[in-house]
Amino acid sequence: AIDTYGVGKVVASGNPEFEKGDIVGGLLSWGEYSVIKPGGMLNKLNPMGFPLSYHVGVLAFSGLTAYAGFFEICKPKKGEKVFVSAASGSVGSLVGQYAKLFGCYVVGCAGSQDKVALLKEKLSFDDAFNYKEVKDLKSTLKRYFPDGIDIYFDNVGGEMQGAAVDNMNISGRVAVCGVISEYTDYEKRAAPSMMDVIYKRIKIQGFLAGDYLNKFADFFTTTSDHLRTGNIKPLEDISKGVESIPSAFISLFRAQNVGKKMVKIAEE
Amino acid sequence: AIDTYGVGKVVASGNPEFEKGDIVGGLLSWGEYSVIKPGGMLNKLNPMGFPLSYHVGVLAFSGLTAYAGFFEICKPKKGEKVFVSAASGSVGSLVGQYAKLFGCYVVGCAGSQDKVALLKEKLSFDDAFNYKEVKDLKSTLKRYFPDGIDIYFDNVGGEMQGAAVDNMNISGRVAVCGVISEYTDYEKRAAPSMMDVIYKRIKIQGFLAGDYLNKFADFFTTTSDHLRTGNIKPLEDISKGVESIPSAFISLFRAQNVGKKMVKIAEE
After folding, report:
1. Can you tell me the distance from the alpha carbon of B83 to that of B162, in angstroms, rounded to the nearest whole number?
2. Ramachandran assignment for B92, one of left (phi > 0), alpha (psi -120 to 50 degrees), beta (any other)
3. Residues of A with CB below 8 A from B208's CB?
4. Closest partner residue to A201 among B182, B203, B211, by Cβ?
5. Interface check B189 vs A, CB under 8 A
6. CB contact, 8 Å: A190 with chain B?
7. Which residues face A110 on adjacent strands?
8. Which residue, A16, A52, A155, B172, has fewest beta-carbon neighbours within 10 Å?
9. Cα-based torsion angle of the residue sequence B209, A163, B203, B153 in order, rounded to the nearest 10 degrees
């Protein structure tokens, strides 16, 4: 069985901590039923009035990744200029929204006109562009950031990272969250100019959300408040049924998803 | 006139703050005599019993660069494994010595057997190698660091940076101090694997010593104490006379210097 992070309902339990009917979140396997052995990563979950899907995406690791990456790695200041790549993805879409709520100027890029429209209209990004329609990334970023980029939240690596560093201000920060370009090679792998990194004292830092579990409570409270007031709009892309699992993965690698890609195995 | 950081003796002064015979350090121009206008960067200098050359190198910007880069950017812990490139250069040679005195394990690389011997014998590096004799940087670093690199003090950029990141431990730090490879293109420019940067939570950070003037007093006291006890041995490569200026620059770009390259214009 292949493991995944998921949410489910207990149908039978030999463990006194869990009862039939409990909602749980944790490491499940792909499929209609999972058998969790003692020592497995599983917790009871209080949905708190939110759809269960929120507890897989925006209120789980995708959200924590965006929150910790933006606040802990990028250490933003109000008014700073933030660029987010793969901005309609599960993490990027949240980073942009956290950054806007915090008082930054935010531009995102994505791979279609529909995604760009979504970023500007639904998620209130200050601006957005379709990177597939762009010939020269460096001059494009110069146009969107005439005063330079302070923070680049990097979900793609490669050429985009090089172009962002070229446009970065002094003391700029790059949070390296994902490297779509290295998975699929659809962009050439490219090096940021280390001369720029030195003269502009740029910090490029990789991170994993798992290192920030001590921030989970902060993250959860802040994010659920914003979800209740409608200040944060989670993007979800849910396909249905075990049979949709392979196509879900394919759409992920083809970047066809908008927001968090999830598979719903059964109705609640 | 081309400016440079230098030390000189006042031969005439229209400024009451400076008298004939004062030793001064600051922004001078290349040549036997410099005229410093009001507002120029110039300070009286107390040699404190050290050769004047120390006040151009080990006790000036080269030293501060090594000190701030190692302690402020790399934030070392005792016992960590440190790799220094261009380790026989003005900055690298000091980084290695600071790291050893601090209690780290230090390996340097340099471009000749003589330089390698110097690092091991005179400067007490734990080990050193000649990068020009190496076919595969990645596996070479693996051999010198079987338990991985915690800190890479990068004076060259390029391929060496990629190979160091490949060998880095979790939470590794790269201080980007110089990029010889980007100046001269003698190495191919190469990208570190961003996948490694993420999974190993690596920080790659550029810096300039000028941002750490607030650490100058610490640096100066620590370093002059080590110089007096002989715990730090400055490497100096001094050529003589105005006529040696062009060849001094050439030797620098050919990496023929050992330690801080300086030109002595006149006897004290």
Report:
1. 13
2. alpha
3. 198-199, 201
4. B211
5. yes
6. yes
7. A130
8. A16
9. -50
- Across the interface, whether the CB atoms of A204 and B197 are under 8 A apart is answered yes
User: Which among B14, B94, B99, B17 is positioned nearest to B60, based on CA atoms?
Assistant: B94
Beta carbons within 8 Å of A231's beta carbon, 6+ residues apart: A97, A101
Q: How far B168 CA sits from the closest chain A CA (Å)?
A: 13
Give B235: exposed, middle or buried? Use CB within 10 Å, 0-12, 13-18, 19+. buried
pLDDT digits (tens, 9 = 90+) for A143-164: 999 999 999 999 998 889 999 9
The complex's ipTM?
0.90
Closest Cβ opposite residue B195 in set A182, A190, A203:
A182
Tell me whether strands B203-206 and A105-110 are parallel, antiparallel or unpaired: unpaired
| Lookup: tokens for B175 | 């201080």
Q: Which of B64, B1, B75 is nearest to B36 (CA)?
A: B1
Contact assignment for A177 to B194 by CB distance below 8 Å: no
- Give me the residue spans of the domains in chain A: 61-209
Q: Distance (Å, rounded) from C-alpha A42 to C-alpha A98?
A: 28
The pLDDT tens digits for A77-114 are 999 999 999 999 999 999 999 999 999 999 999 999 99
Q: Each residue of B113-139: pLDDT tens digit?
A: 999 999 999 999 999 999 999 999 999
Residue A266 CA to residue A128 CA, distance in Å, equals 36
What's the sign of the alpha-carbon dihedral B124, B125, B128, B131?
negative
Interface residue B72 vs chain A (CB under 8 A)? no
Choose among A161, A196, A206: nearest Cβ to B202: A206
Which CATH superfamily, name and number, covers B52-268? Answer: NAD(P)-binding Rossmann-like Domain (3.40.50.720)
Whole-angstrom distance, CA of residue A206 vs CA of residue B199: 7
Q: A141 is written with which tokens?
A: 């970023």
Q: Is A200 on the interface with B (CB under 8 A)?
A: yes
CATH of A61-209, one of 3.40.50.10860, 3.30.460.80, 3.40.710.10, 3.40.50.720: 3.40.50.720
* Interface touch A206/B191, C-beta < 8 Å: no
Q: For residue B191, which residues of chain A lie inside 8 Å, CB to CB?
A: 189-192
Chain A to chain B, count of Cβ pairs less than 8 Å apart? 85
Site of tokens 């759809």: A51
Tokens (6 digits) for B36: 């410093």
Task: Tell if the CB–CB gap between A197 and B205 is shorter than 8 Å.
Answer: yes
**Residue in the block written with tokens 């950031």:** A145
Percent of chain B with pLDDT over 70: 96
Q: Where are the alpha helices (DSSP H) in A122-215?
A: 137-144, 158-166, 180-184, 194-199
